[in-house]
Here is the input.
Amino acid sequence: MGPAPTPAYEAAVSSARESFAALALRAPVRLAKRTSNLFRNRPGTGGPGLDLSACQGVFDVDLGAGLARVGGLTTYERAVDELLPHGVMPLVVPQLRTITVGGAVVGLGIESTSFRSGLPHESVVEVDVLTGTGEVVTATPDGEHADLFRSLPNSYGTLGYTLGLVVELERTSRWVVVEHHRFGDLDELVATIGEVMAHRAHGGREVDFLDGVVFSADEAYLTLGRWSGTTEGLVPGDYTGPEPYYRSLQHRRRDVLTAEDYLWRWDTDWFWCSRAFGAQHPLVRRVWPRRLLRSDVYWRIMRLEQQRGWYAALQRRRGRPPQERVVQDVEIPLGRTGDFLRWFLREVPIEPVWLCPVRLRADAPAPDGGPPWPLYPMRIGEDYVNLGFWSAVDIPPDGRPGDTNRAIEATVTELGGHKGLYSEAFYDEPTFRELYGGEHLDAVKRRYDPDGRFPTLYDKAVRAR
Here is the structure.
């Protein structure tokens, strides 16, 4: 369906097969990977992991067909670096540089083009998967392995590892012009999202990018962006300087960024989470090297703190209560987004909240009339808003760790939404099965991982095994 495999790509696939064959027979398989964008434990194997390091890079580009063959372990940073010179990019480029193309498929990804282009896995036309038997199969929407193709999104490596993918591309321009619109009413905010999603335009201008930030019930912003061949007389923004990007929303009505700077506008300060490391303090910002204003740098600092516990020990000495980490992304139907935001802002002391509207593509495969992607059953024809919130809350004396996350899970389900699984989850197993694939997942698991070389989705997402 895409560019023919190149010799370099075939060699990468062979390397992956050899690495799998070298692992202990029937032993559990884990990926040997130094970086991660997960916010839950990643247990080790007790031995060498699966080495897929050869599966990186853009192996081929077919500009006429608008397709590229990309290694599964290719970071979006590398994919963008290799594709932008051709004047193209993947239809959806998740907001953090070190998210991998394969990771965005099996773990879900999203960004400000998702209101028109869906989720990253929807622009995949074929994918080579290393299964639990050591076989490499090519999965497509309507081929022999269509069941695997539909089940990869939200599977998190429990069905196999993506070695290479053929992905759709879109043409780019040099600049992205953005407009920040302020709202003092959540219902008006939601209504405007619906209008832009319906018409892909606002105020007579085409909209190519759409996301937003909620600071409080009476201060929220929608950012509408569009490709442009010029700066339109604006001075290009640079948010590796004194001001983080998200603060510019509160006082700039229009802005322009290079295509690359726009794609990584959130990565520079890990949205706004860099403030936890002091990186937004004016004095610290002045001496912090710009090249180290990156999400993976903050992630490594966070992991080091989790291992050493220095900050937690300092907080205990200060008499501060223990905290519960609340790091989640949820999809809420557009019509219930205002309800969720009002509940969240009232019950959970975390701000800001990121908004990213999303609509599944109308051509998503649904041969049985059910949800096209069974492990994350959003519905075709319904608009959703992804809401992201990433911080921690105090645990009250009569509370227990996980209470806030459980309340969020219950509210999301009540409102007909879904929660991503890149972070901690607290569902009981029957509820989890009902929400994330159930018997369908069981059947696909039996076919492609009959010996249980990979963990189950519940073990990985909830039990952190």
The chain is about 30% helix and 20% strand. The two ends are 36 Å apart (CA to CA). The longest helix spans residues 7-22.
